[in-house]
Amino acid sequence: MDIVIRPVEAGEYEALGEITARAYLLDGLLDFGESDAYLDELRDVAKRAAAAEVLVAAEGGSVLGGVTFVPGGGPMADIAGPGEAEIRMLAVARTGRGRGAGEALVRACVDRARAVEGCVRIVLSTQRTMRSAHRIYERLGFTRTPERDWNPLPDLDDITLLTYELTL
Question: What is the pLDDT at residue 29?
Answer without folding.
Answer: 54
